[in-house]
Amino acid sequence: MKKHAEQLYYRLGATLYMPAIRPDLAQRLTTTQAGSVVLCTEDAISESQIEDALKNINKLLMSFPQINTNVFIRARSPQVLANLLALDTIDHIKGFVIPKIDHSNVHEYKEAVEDSGKNTFYLMPTIETEIAFDNQELIRLRKFIDTFPVGIPCFRIGGNDLLSLLGIKRPDYVTIYETPVRIAIDNCITAFRPFGYQLSAPVFEYIDDKNLPLLKKELMLDRAYGFLNKTAIHPVQVDLIQEILSVKNEELDLAKKIILHQDKAVFKADGQMCEPSTHINWAKKMLAIDRR
């Protein structure tokens, strides 16, 4: 499972979140264009709705539709994860999103995974507590998650929760990279990506048409930061996310040239200097995406 996790990351596209309490989950799963969907039992619903949400998920799994998207469930707590793993039909989904992962709960989540005896699913832990602002604590968390017996397609970054910790609500005229959360994003990249883990870009919470130019600007910065997946909270965001975060033909062509000339110190292509010794990892990543 672990060796296939990165390939799954390349297929996630826009990850559309849906409250697990919705009565029309099956219909929405069959019509969505999102590369992946998360049925949320955490922030999207209230504490009093958890039992109904779990019943709704079980109903969906009992007559799971034929779909082309990867379905995950955001488990509200280790106990909710354990309850979901106990369902006979849980194999219909691809895996789980773990919210607010840090040292206060990571051991319980691992115990829930191990106690289930199941390891054919994937986990996407979400960094959205104060740990995001402490690089050394992120490294310590990464080393513990290394011991999990399941694949990790990516770590997700909870931008709004991190803004909340700082007492900030992002205004509708700046990208996430123009807020203090950029520091947390940098920390996550340096703590996880050099060690084989991918990351998902934070949500853009504005969904009106007038905000699409700003979403486009943020997506271009997401690409510059190496993200190929982003959380979506509304279907209107899906197409733009998947268009901008997809790998372009010119990128694939350049990657092939770098691989072809990897024995050279430096060469010119498409108006830029290419140095295989430093660009080879990027090139291999692009070609791996092309083969997904």
Q: Keyphrases for this structure?
A:
292 residues; alpha/beta; TIM Barrel; 2 domains; 8-stranded parallel β-sheet; two-stranded antiparallel ribbon; 45% helix; C-C_Bond_Lyase-like; lyase activity; Citrate_lyase_beta/mcl1/mcl2
Please sum up the structure shown.
This protein has 292 residues and is an alpha/beta fold. Helices cover 45% and strands 14% of the residues. The protein folds into 2 domains: 2-246, Phosphoenolpyruvate-binding domains (TIM Barrel); 247-292, no CATH class.
Describe this structure in words.
This protein is of the alpha/beta class. The protein folds into 2 domains: 2-246, Alpha-Beta Barrel (TIM Barrel); 247-292, no CATH class. 45% of the residues lie in helices and 14% in strands. The chain contains 12 helices and 10 strands. The protein has an 8-stranded parallel beta sheet with strand order 7-6-5-4-3-2-1-8. A two-stranded antiparallel ribbon has the order 9-10. It is globular.
Q: Helices, strands, pairings?
A:
Layout: H1 2-11, E1 14-19, H2 25-31, E2 36-40, H3 50-62, E3 70-74, H4 78-85, E4 95-98, H5 106-116, E5 122-127, H6 135-145, E6 155-157, H7 159-165, H8 181-192, E7 199-200, H9 212-224, E8 230-232, H10 235-245, H11 249-260, E9 267-269, E10 272-274, H12 276-290
Parallel strand pairs: 1-2, 1-8, 2-3, 3-4, 4-5, 5-6, 6-7
Antiparallel strand pairs: 9-10
Helix pairs in contact: 4-5, 6-8, 9-10, 11-12
Binding site for Mg(2+): 161
Cofactor: Mg(2+)
Keywords: Lyase, Magnesium, Metal-binding
User: What series of H and E elements makes up the topology?
Assistant: HEHEHEHEHEHEHHEHEHHEEH
- Determine the N-to-C terminus distance: 15 Å
Name of the CATH homologous superfamily of the largest domain: Phosphoenolpyruvate-binding domains
Quickly count the helices: 12
Low-confidence stretches: none
Strand content: 5-15%
By CATH, the topology of the largest domain is TIM Barrel
Number of domains: 2
Tell me about the largest β-sheet.
8 strands, parallel
Mean pLDDT: 92
Structural class: alpha/beta
CATH top level class name of the largest domain = Alpha Beta
Please report the total strand number as a whole number: 10
- Globally, the shape reads globular
